[in-house]
Amino acid sequence: MINCRSAGRSPKRSWACRRSCWRPTRLFSLFQGPHWTLLGYDIDANRAPVGRRGLHIHTLGARGDILDTGGHVQSAYALAGPPWILVRPDGYLAAVADAADLGSIEAFLDTVGIRPAR
């Protein structure tokens, strides 16, 4: 089920590690820019949705492109399952959905004009 949390700002002090270079990075750096960000936590990167213009997609956890070293991201977002977290361009949370409910986030993105790349 989709849970909109647009009143909350995404935590800036969450640290993670990029798998490609094994360097610590602030999660906030993933949000910088005029784009939406979709984070999948503890989800296989192969299960990520189709790319969309104006949307950056990252998967966090042991199977993702970003490692949650020390569990900082899980703690900051109080994550209990494998959710998708949608962050607006201004850094505020737009929605959190269970992995099985990714379709709700995709439908929401359609309504705000973020459509699949062709």
From TrEMBL:
UniProt lineage: Bacteria, Bacillati, Actinomycetota, Actinomycetes, Kitasatosporales
InterPro entries with a match to the protein in the record: Thioredoxin-like_sf (IPR036249)
Top-level taxon: Bacteria
Name of this chain's protein: Uncharacterized protein
